[in-house]
Design a protein that fits this description.
Strand 1, helix 1 and strand 2 form a beta-alpha-beta unit. The chain is elongated. Helix content is 33%, strand content 14%. With 388 residues, it is an alpha/beta fold.
Length: 388
């Protein structure tokens, strides 16, 4: 592997990644690799794949560089293959068969670079009856059983934004997969294809629950279990000002502290007596409605009752603990989550703002020793929205 010449910071410094631009889990996975120090070159298409927002605000493209390649142009595939020849990892999120039709599939890339790790990010996976169908996070998690677990017993399943499928079941599994395959490639000299499907990853996330189900410790319905809101001391409660507190007082000593601070010590026996849970829930709910969220936050502050205020996206960066850790950071006028996790010897940081489409063509050509394109396409000022 040729060492990347672009400035790097983090444990993946020196690792080169090609990202074929898409939306959702693929870009987030590439951002995570970039946050960890990899030299990520995003191959944008003319006009962009589009979230419908200004590229300057798309922070999933931070710490990356961008070139524009039209894969439908006669020289488009060759330009991507030039990048793949010099890369350690390539990430794409097309439907099965599309990359092959465009001339940049695994066979084309491995012919140029046998050590390449070729990461494929899809919802349904590379094979199966639904592989060629369109979809989004909510449909993927619906079929895995995980969506059906979330929400109250008397209403429809609650929608967990697109965090559970796209990013937890998708992006994070793709990153684990390509890094494991990179380890193998460096040990053997042989690359491989990583098939990261959101349905697979999301199902895998529920492994513990399936074990509990098999053991008879989990009921296959919403709002009836220890961790799904069925337990009155593991859930959320409204406060006097319409805000909420989150309670997770599972263990006996935490539960005892919770009751003491809430002022309902007479409910100690309800911890293991499920028949008393409905009455306990009513009493806990009534107590929380007596004070504001800030007042209850002060009551539980510094204790082991495992109670916390439910904060909004704009409030979270200002919480004293998160502020002290630098969990959020400001870069280019945008408050955003800082890179995670943290490393003692190779610290990570937000090095650059969102890559502007095509802005880094000359620098990438120089640093990756690429043939110079005949002309550099102008960077678009906005990205139109396209369906997935």
């Amino acid at each position: 592997m040729t060492e990347a010449k672009a400035p790097g910071q983090g444990p993946l410094t020196g690792v080169r990644v090609v990202e074929l631009a898409g939306i959702g889990p693929g870009p987030f996975a590439a951002m995570l690799l970039a946050d960890l120090g990899a030299d990520v070159v995003r191959v944008d298409r003319p006009g962009g794949p589009g979230l419908g927002i200004d590229p300057a605000g798309d922070i999933t493209n931070r710490n990356k560089r961008s070139v524009i390649v039209d894969l439908k142009d006669p020289d488009g595939p060759a330009r991507v293959l030039d990048l793949a020849e010099r890369a350690d990892i390539l990430i794409e999120g097309y439907r099965p068969g599309v990359a092959e039709r465009l001339g940049v599939g695994p066979g084309d890339c491995h012919a140029r670079n046998p050590r390449l790790v070729y990461g494929r990010m899809t919802g349904w996976g590379q094979h199966g009856p639904l592989a060629d169908r369109a979809g989004h996070d909510i449909a993927y998690i619906a079929l895995t059983g995980t969506l059906g677990m979330i929400g109250g017993p008397d209403g429809p399943p609650a929608v967990p934004a697109n965090l559970l499928g796209d990013y937890a079941g998708g992006s994070l599994y793709l990153v684990v997969g390509v890094l494991a395959a990179l380890h193998h490639a460096r040990a053997t000299g042989t690359g491989q294809v990583v098939d990261a499907a959101i349905v697979d990853g999301t199902a895998h996330l529920s492994t513990m629950i399936h074990g509990m189900l098999a053991a008879g410790a989990w009921q296959d319905r919403r709002g009836a279990n220890l961790l799904d809101g069925g337990c009155p001391y593991y859930g959320t409660y409204e406060t006097a000002d319409g805000e909420h507190m989150a309670v997770g007082a599972l263990e006996p000593r935490f539960y005892t502290e919770f009751l003491r601070l809430l002022g309902i010590e007479d409910q100690a026996a309800a911890h293991t007596d499920v028949s008393r849970w409905p009455a306990l829930r009513e009493q806990v709910a009534a107590r929380f409605k007596e004070r504001t969220r800030d007042a209850w936050t002060a009551v539980f502050e510094g204790t082991d009752a495992c109670v916390a205020p439910v904060l909004s996206l704009r409030e979270a960066p200002h919480h004293p603990h998160l502020a002290a850790r630098g969990t959020f950071t400001d870069h280019g006028g945008i408050t955003q989550p800082a890179p995670a996790p943290r490393f003692s010897a190779t610290p990570v940081a937000v090095r650059t703002g969102p890559a502007r489409p095509g802005a880094d063509t000359d620098d990438v050509a120089r640093d990756w020793d690429l043939p110079r394109p005949a002309a550099t396409a102008p960077a678009p000022t906005s990205q139109p929205s396209h369906p997935q």
